[in-house]
Specification:
16 helices; 2 strands; single chain; two-stranded antiparallel sheet; disordered N terminus
Length: about 325
């Protein structure tokens, strides 16, 4: 069935149908995310709470609006952002194993965020995203430079450099936590990806920048199709390949850094979702990118639900859920490619 869907020609009707289905899936997972938890709330009360109906108990409304809605919005932003960043990195490198976590970008963002949390007492809501962004961009530049051999970008060298640089920065994070204050030690769960500290203030800061970067990547979807055929072919067809790659790497790093600053490290989403969408819908980035955004948001909501209910009332870090799914898939992709 997947192969049949993959072979169908891309048309406006097909794009609208697929994206419409994915929007419905996202709406259903959203209702489930607001309803399911240690305290179950009916779908009717969820909807009534969202429209501010007086018929809902005050406690249930507080659970929906003050606790679950911010973390659900955070899950959507994280899933969508990491998925589109992973899809773009895979297009630029022409390698299905590329994604922010494996390339070490997430680890760089983590170091920046940890340093901001531990050493900046004022303006944390603004400083932490900026520090995380700086760390992500720094790692991307480092990995990008290490990935060049004889003046040309070697995708295998880039992936290996990303893994090694990511391992180094992960070790740096553990060292910082071990050496410094109790506040950093308490952030250990955040390092494994956690939505429990979600709040509307941090979302209001990072969301506009993530949306701008995502919009830029969506506008380049046709050019990514040309790059997928080869850099020389894309150049002959008028694409400024080097400039586009630099801007796309920067946008992917921006998204990753901002996501890490509010959610911690969540791996493998940028690997799983684009590959699933490519396998089902085909490699055309005009469909692949928006489909990855919608499916990534739904996937992250489901992962958050699982993190809250599997060992309730104890909450599992959502990064552990995505890693449990993504690591076996990574091994399968590695053997397959």
């Amino acid at each position: 069935m997947f192969a049949k869907l993959n072979r169908q020609p891309l048309s406006f009707q097909r794009v609208a149908t697929i994206l419409g289905i994915l929007v419905v899936v996202l709406l259903l997972t959203t209702l489930a995310g607001l309803s399911v938890g240690s305290v179950s709330v009916s779908f009717t009360n969820v909807v009534n709470s969202l429209v501010n109906c007086d018929c809902v108990d005050a406690t249930e409304r507080a659970i929906i609006i003050d606790i679950r809605l911010p973390r659900l919005l955070l899950a959507m932003i994280v899933g969508a952002g990491l998925s589109v960043a992973g899809a773009v990195l895979q297009a630029l490198l022409r390698n299905p194993l590329a994604e922010p976590y494996i390339l070490g970008i997430s680890s760089g963002g983590t170091v920046g965020a940890i340093l901001a949390i531990g050493f900046v007492s004022a303006g944390g809501a603004f400083i932490t995203p900026l520090a995380s962004l700086a760390g992500s961009i720094l790692v991307m530049l480092l990995v990008y430079s290490l990935g060049h051999r004889h003046g040309l970008l070697d995708t295998n060298a880039l992936l290996l450099a990303g893994v090694m640089v990511g391992a180094f920065f992960n070790a740096a994070v553990l060292l910082i936590i071990a050496l410094f204050n109790q506040e950093l030690r308490n952030s250990f769960l955040w390092l494994m990806g956690n939505f429990s500290s979600a709040n509307l203030q941090s979302l209001a800061i990072v969301s506009p920048l993530i949306l701008i970067a995502t919009g830029f990547l969506l506008l380049q979807s046709k050019k990514y199709n040309l790059i997928a055929t080869g850099d020389e072919t894309a150049l002959q067809l008028g694409v400024e390949v080097r400039r586009l790659k630099r801007l796309s790497y920067l946008a992917a790093s921006l998204i990753t850094g901002l996501v890490v600053s509010v959610s911690g490290v969540i791996g493998f989403v940028g690997l799983i979702i684009p590959h699933i969408c490519r396998m089902i819908f085909g490699p055309d980035h005009r469909l692949l990118l928006p489909a990855s955004i919608l499916l990534g948001a739904s996937f992250m909501i489901v992962a958050d639900i699982l993190s809250r209910i599997l060992l309730a009332p104890t909450e599992i870090p959502v990064g552990a859920i995505t890693a449990a799914i993504g690591a076996p898939l990574f091994v399968w992709l590695l053997k397959r490619t």
